[in-house]
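Standup notes
- DV: blocked on the single-chain target, sequence here:
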Amino acid sequence: MSKILVTSNCQTGGIASGLKAMLPEYHIEPFPVTRLNAENELESLNSILSSEDIWVSINPKPANVPSSQYIKIPTIFFNAFHPDITYAQYADAQQANHLTQTHYNSFIAIWMYNNKVDPEDAARLYNHSTYKQLGYYGLWNASVDKLRRAFRDCDLTDKEFDRYMLTMKRRGLFMHSQNHPRIEAIIELCKLIAFRISASETLIHRDIVLPDVLSAIVVWPLYTEIGQELGLNGDYCWRFNDQEICGLQNYLAFAFREYREQGIEPGDLKSHVVIPNAEEILAKELEAK
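- DV (later): unblocked, structure below
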């Protein structure tokens, strides 16, 4: 039985499960991107990739892998639903590569913590005026364009992308976070991949149900006001592994407590996202409230 190796980031498991459901004649083997590095990339592939196997990957094609055996796939990234998410690290240059323990952070919360704002006061900044001024409402078209470019880079046509996006829009909220798609978004991508390999056109219309593994890791909420702008229902409930935190003050208390427990002092956090004039916007909003 020929193999299909699947190499991606956190989406590897979902893609592998999707292809297994659609292409039962193949043995599907997850081969996460973490297994690849400069030292063992070619060695690892050579040891398990035969002349009849296929490598489905977000990585560039190595010279030793024939084009006929290689399918490049896009990483699904879409931040219009969750524009407040950011990675964060220590501002201290000696610890600049250290991410916070919970990798996802709120951009607004980081500013609040750095400026020693109490969680009770900080919660007031999560509102329509703040989101509008920070540009959180204007990311839909940019997110669609970025994802379209990712599809084009993988030689997927605009027609395929348009069909994909139409399906996603009908689903509503199709992301758990900016880089964790819901399983429905992964399944639709798998249909495009499977069709390229050997699946029939009828596969596109099949209803395929799989467990949503990424939902058990982190689910970032679609903030209520942002949901309203997109015509969707939102809330303020976070899920980190097996812990659910509902309510802004509860989330902020959790985040601030984690920062303190990691020994991060106010002023020592640095967001990976840069928003023009954010300091002035948030300071004025806080003063106005």
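- Follow-up: The mean pLDDT is 90.
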